[in-house]
Specification:
heterotrimer; A alpha/beta (177); B alpha+beta (627); C mainly alpha (127); A: 177 residues; alpha/beta; Glutaredoxin; 5-stranded mixed beta sheet; two-stranded antiparallel ribbon; 22% strand; B: 627 residues; alpha+beta; 6-stranded antiparallel beta sheet; 4-stranded antiparallel beta sheet; 17 helices; 10 strands; 63% helix
């Protein structure tokens, strides 16, 4: 008879399992898709630069840095403007190299943007048609990647707000600096 | 005393009255008059809802909800609809529907006082929970923090009559299953889960089903006409969230019939009763918690999600724990034969649940892989179609057999005799079509033959039982609903097989050809609507020199909030829809036009109407028969 | 957040000046391309395929697929590259990989489970 009783408890057990599952889901923000690149090496890319005419910006640069931040931006992107001062702050931290990728932009506008708001970047790659940035899995700018010793450890979608800087970015950097 | 305070007081009344009523669930309690405490929440929620509509109509920007979701220039009807087109307002609507069902049930003539009280008490417990949720996290009467003179405007995509009535209708179905759950709880507590219980439950299960079917159909209909994506169902998580209770509810309804007739399957029926509303609750959770990404999701908040989850957990754990203890005691011995009406219904029960399982799995799988494997997957339509194909074939098969099998025990030979002629006729017709149309392969032929057989068998069944036109039996409803379902699958398959579409880059005076039909691009004009500017293109379907049809797809630019929409131009003919959508690329001298030729779309809508009418006639004539 | 999405929406609904049929492909290549478009999810309007979507990103992805086809890559290679860049979710239909077994075979197991349950209920009870 005990056997008979046990199976009737199955629905309660299943319910509890699902409640736990859903509570775990609540903790994650699922509008931001997990990046394919997390825990993987820096993707292979090579692009011309905005300011240094004879140089290129490529995977080699990013791997050479111990800690690199790659930020994908453009002059027509309004949130990129608000994020820019945060990037300026980040560029002042010792031990971090900031790189930018100017995405689907016009060179004059991009230069104007940098001249007016400041240049936090060690190098700025230029991707006019969005093709080179595809390897980063870009789908909505701005996006920022944190790379430690050649491995992508974090992807931030959307502009970095001050609270996100304090609560997410700085702690990550603190761990690896 | 401002209106917001009145609203809050009304909801407090609702909260307290429902709390008091729910104490009737306790073994030791003070007896109270359920008539007062079951009806008071309805009156106060109704008044609160009317009040909410009023502040929207009045464009009262002292309230945050009105500011966020309305604008003084919105047409009146969309101001009204704006009241429930948001999280807080729709939550109030949820509560209102919960109280409506309790209210109506309180008038029922069931003489088993104990049972009745427990049903009302559990329903009240749920009303209490949702009202608490509203007051604590999602109060529609929250005042604005700063003084605002104008609202942020309603999304123009939501300014559509169909879409405005879709939530209330859907909710009556979705939330209606709450009373079904209360019935299950009441039945378990009072140990009354039998034929009589099933008879009492029958109209409620039917009513919720009818509204849910209609609600889902309306949503699908709207998506087809408004979104311009050419489809009517996208296996979007929120669409799936409404489909899941429908599948469970359909299975449940058929079990209730068995319980009524044969007094067996008590615990299974209770299980399904709990499951159906659980799915409504899970659906609500998925949509409002922020864990899903979809066209439909409201602006969400994990704190709200947590509250819904806790509420969901409490209700489900109480219900399923009660089931764990009472379940083993409920069942009668069954003498069902392998070949019988009951076994066919049971088989289809499991097939419906398998469908539910596929939809459930498909919806939650991406969430699971993201959480456990840190991998993002997505589940597109192909998964559902491939997985559901074999299930649908079997489903149709048993729908043909079931109504033609006798209760308890029947012979295969008898069943075959009653359907073989119509089956062969269907097979011949579809086979004939397949010779003429080589798009029809084995899968389609199988499905279409089964669908046609189902339709013909159901027609014959309906005529046979109702040949005496002075007394129309409830089984007419069954025939209509089954015809509807057969027609639905048939139309979906035919549409998928024969639909054609093509994207053209067109300039004025071009002639676009699709499926030997010629469309002439005649002009592009600018236009100004009430709250938008638009560009309208004119296409004419030509037959040599005569104009057969005119299409005017539009691009609209709204200012408040700034959005761009694409309005489709659809010409509906009896057998086919022609659907034209336009998109204007920047910096180009041409227009992207997409023309779809979609056969049998109208039949999809017809089939849903048939199912709804079938359900309605089952209730109406059941009532008449009783008298 | 709302403003950002509105800006995205406006920018991404008006597709860029490049349309997707401007590369020189044979009819067979074009058919292959269209099949791939229908299999690829649009990142911005996630319920749509890039075939259906008018967003800028959808256009970019279509161009990417065209280039890959013209340069001789197979359908599988193109899909793999897309997965490497964006993740498995970019494909509309989940692959039949080991990890996805539960997705594809779960329903079958469920169905069989039901058959067993029914057998026990109907046939054994009658004995």
């Amino acid at each position: 008879m005990k056997n008979l009783k046990l199976k009737y408890f199955l629905p309660v057990v299943i319910t509890i399992v699902f409640v736990i599952f859903f509570s775990q889901l609540l903790k994650k923000d699922v509008t931001k898709l997990s990046s394919q690149l997390i825990e993987k090496p820096v993707p292979t890319f090579n692009m011309p630069t905005l300011l240094n005419d004879n140089q290129s910006f490529s995977t080699i640069d990013v791997i050479a840095s111990d800690i690199a931040l790659v930020n994908i931006w453009s002059s027509w992107c309004i949130p990129c403007r608000s994020e820019h001062e945060i990037l300026m702050l980040l560029s002042k931290i010792e031990g971090i190299d900031l790189y930018g990728i100017n995405y689907k932009d016009n060179e004059d506008n991009a230069l104007d943007f940098i001249n007016k708001l400041g240049n936090p970047f060690k190098k700025i790659g230029v991707d006019n048609n969005g093709r080179s940035s595809m390897v980063w899995g870009v789908y909505g700018i701005p996006e920022t990647f944190i790379i430690h010793k050649g491995t992508v450890i974090y992807k931030h979608i959307g502009p970095i707000h001050m609270n996100e800087l304090e609560e997410i970015i700085l702690p990550i950097l603190g761990d690896i600096l | 005393m401002n209106l917001g305070n009145v609203g809050n007081i009304l909801m407090l009344v609702c909260l307290l009255a429902s709390l008091i009523q729910s104490t009737q669930l306790l073994p030791r309690k003070i007896d109270i008059d359920y008539k007062i405490f079951s009806r008071l929440p309805f009156y106060s929620s109704l008044l609160a809802f009317i009040l909410l509509i009023y502040i929207f109509v009045d464009s009262n920007f002292n309230y945050q909800l009105v500011v966020n979701n309305s604008h003084s220039e919105k047409p009146l009807i969309y101001k009204i609809a704006g009241a429930w087109g948001n999280h807080e307002g729709s939550l109030l609507l949820w509560i209102l529907v919960l109280t409506i069902f309790n209210f109506i049930f309180s008038y029922s003539k069931i003489e088993h006082a104990d049972f009745k009280k427990n049903v009302i008490a559990f329903q009240s417990l749920m009303i209490f929970g949702f009202t608490l949720f509203l007051l604590l996290t999602s109060n529609p009467f929250t005042p604005t923090e700063t003084i605002v003179s104008e609202g942020l405007g309603l999304n123009p995509v939501l300014q559509d009559l169909l879409l405005a009535i879709h939530p209330p209708i859907l909710y009556v179905g979705y939330v209606g299953y709450s009373l079904v759950l209360s019935f299950a709880i009441g039945g378990m507590i009072t140990n009354k889960v039998d034929k009589e219980w099933a008879e009492w439950l029958h109209p409620w299960v039917l009513t919720a089903w009818i509204f849910l079917t209609l609600g889902i159909g309306l949503g699908s209909f709207w998506a087809y006409y408004e979104l311009g994506w050419g489809g009517y169902w996208f296996w979007d998580p929120v669409e799936n969230a409404s489909l899941m209770p429908w599948l469970a509810g359909t299975a449940l309804f058929h079990c209730v019939i068995i319980l009524e007739k044969k007094n067996i399957l008590q615990s299974w029926t209770i299980l399904l009763s709990i499951l159906t509303f659980s799915l409504s609750l899970i659906g609500t959770f998925l949509v409002r918690s922020g864990i899903l990404n979809s066209v439909h999701t409201f602006a969400s908040d994990p704190a709200r999600g947590l509250f819904i989850l806790i509420f969901l957990a409490i209700i489900l754990i109480i219900s399923f724990t009660l089931y764990a203890f009472k379940g083993p005691l409920l069942d009668n011995k069954s003498e069902m034969n392998l070949v019988s009406k009951e076994s066919s219904i049971l088989a289809n029960n499991w097939l419906l649940l398998s469908t539910l399982f596929v939809v459930f799995l498909g919806t939650l799988y991406p969430l699971g892989t993201d959480l456990f494997l840190q991998k993002s997957t997505s589940v597109g339509p192909n998964y559902y179609i491939l997985s559901l194909l074999p299930i649908t074939v079997l489903l149709l098969f048993f729908m043909i057999i079931g109504p033609n099998a006798k209760w308890q025990s029947d012979k295969i030979s008898n069943i075959i005799l009653s359907i073989n002629k119509l089956f062969i006729l269907s097979l011949a017709i579809i086979f004939g079509f397949s010779i003429y149309f080589d798009e029809l392969h084995l899968t389609q032929i199988t499905l279409l033959t089964l669908c046609l057989t189902l339709i013909l068998v159901s027609i014959k069944d309906g005529l046979r039982v109702n040949h005496n036109y002075t007394i129309i039996k409830p089984s007419l409803g069954k025939s209509l609903a089954h015809i509807g379902f057969g027609l639905l699958i048939l139309s979906v398959v035919a549409n998928a097989t024969f639909a054609q579409e093509k994207i053209f880059q067109a300039k004025v005076n071009d002639i676009l050809i699709l499926d030997d039909q010629k469309f002439r691009f005649d002009s592009v004009e600018q236009n100004k609507g009430k709250n938008y500017n638009s560009i309208i293109a004119t296409f004419h379907l030509m037959d040599n020199k005569t104009i057969l049809e005119t299409f005017k797809p539009e691009i609209r630019v709204y200012s408040n909030p700034p959005t761009v929409t694409s309005e489709t131009s659809i010409i509906r003919k009896f057998l086919t829809d022609i659907y034209v959508v336009m998109n204007i690329p920047e910096n180009s001298d041409f227009v992207n036009v997409r023309i779809h030729i979609k056969p049998l779309i109208s039949f999809i809508w017809l089939s849903i109407i048939l199912m709804v009418i079938g359900g309605m006639s089952a209730i109406v004539f059941r009532v008449k028969l009783k008298k | 957040m709302k403003v950002k999405y509105i800006v995205f929406f406006i920018i991404f609904t008006m597709s860029s000046s490049t349309s997707f049929a401007n590369m020189k492909m044979t009819s067979e290549q074009n058919d292959r391309a269209i099949e791939l478009y229908k299999e690829t999810r649009c990142l911005v309007c996630q319920s749509q395929t890039i075939y259906d979507s008018n967003s800028e990103l959808a256009t970019d992805l279509k161009l990417f697929i065209q280039e890959e086809i013209i340069s001789g890559k197979s359908d599988d290679e193109i899909k793999t590259q897309l997965i490497n860049n964006y993740g498995e979710w970019i494909l509309m239909t989940p692959a039949l990989s080991k990890a996805n077994y539960i997705l594809w075979f779960g329903p079958v197991i469920f169905l069989v489970f039901g058959i067993i349950l029914m057998y026990k209920y109907i046939i054994r009870k009658n004995k």
